[in-house]
Amino acid sequence: MDQFRLARPGPEHAGELLTVQRAAYVTEAQRYDAPHIPPLVETLDEVRADLAGDVPAVAAWLGPRLVGSVRGRVDGGRMEIARLTVAPDQQGRGLGRALLAAVHAAAPAPVERFWLVTGARSDDNRRLYAAAGYVDAGSVVDAAGVGLVRMERGREDSAEQDRPVRDGSARDVSARCGHGSAGGPAGG
After folding, report:
1. N or C terminus of the chain with fewer C-beta within 10 Å?
2. Residue pair 132/114 in contact by the 8 Å Cβ criterion
3. Is 34 exposed, middle or buried (0-12, 13-18, 19+ CB in 10 A)?
4. Which residues form the N-acetyltransferase domain (predicted)?
């Protein structure tokens, strides 16, 4: 089994990260017939600025290739989980789950709640988030007419799901990629 490595990306990884993000979100854009969703129109400079700052961020590499990432946006005691992406050819291997757990672990101490929005018809993503302890907390239709679901959880709501699985199963990505020290289309 190939080994993933999780680590904080730097501004020098912005181009690779944006490429994976766009590849991962194309199917979401097609599902909703909305080609201008925020992950597809985010610019290289915006990604680079996020990565140059103190934004909690985690990326996954398979050898030299960046294959997934996630960023957090902290506002006081809350952190938005944003842009959880996995390269389309790497989806379904547990990497989305490992990235989500790693960004939870990277949240600064004052953060007590995590939240995110995902497409109302993005069933795989919603299952991934529910398995990580997220619950539906409302819905909204964005400016492009896309139905979104807001999901939330507390820092301790799903600590068990955030621990690396050590049973050798396909869910054991955290153990296989050594994510313990890590300080959308998630493919989970």
Report:
1. N
2. no
3. middle
4. 2-156
The two three-digit tokens of residue 42, written as one number: 């985010």
Other residues' Cβ atoms within 10 Å of the Cβ of residue 22: 15
**Neighbouring C-alpha atoms within 13 Å toward the C-beta of 112:** 3
Number of structural domains found in the chain = 1
The answer as to whether 186 is a domain residue is: no
> How far is the C-alpha of 10 from the C-alpha of 139, rounded, in Å?
33
- pLDDT tens for each residue of 153-184: 999 875 445 544 333 333 333 333 333 322 26
In the chain, DSSP assigns E strands to 4-7, 57-62, 65-75, 78-86, 113-119, 135-141, 147-154
Q: What are phi and psi of 10, to 5 degrees?
A: -110, 175
Residues 6+ apart with CB under 8 A from 115: 78, 79, 80, 81, 137, 150, 151, 152, 153
CA-CA distance, 121 to 104, in Å (whole number)? 24
CATH number at residue 71: 3.40.630.30
> For residue range 92-147, what is the model confidence (pLDDT) as tens digits?
999 999 999 999 999 999 999 999 999 999 999 999 999 999 999 999 998 878 89
Residue span of the structural domain in which 112 resides:
4-181
Q: Does residue 171 form part of some domain? A: yes
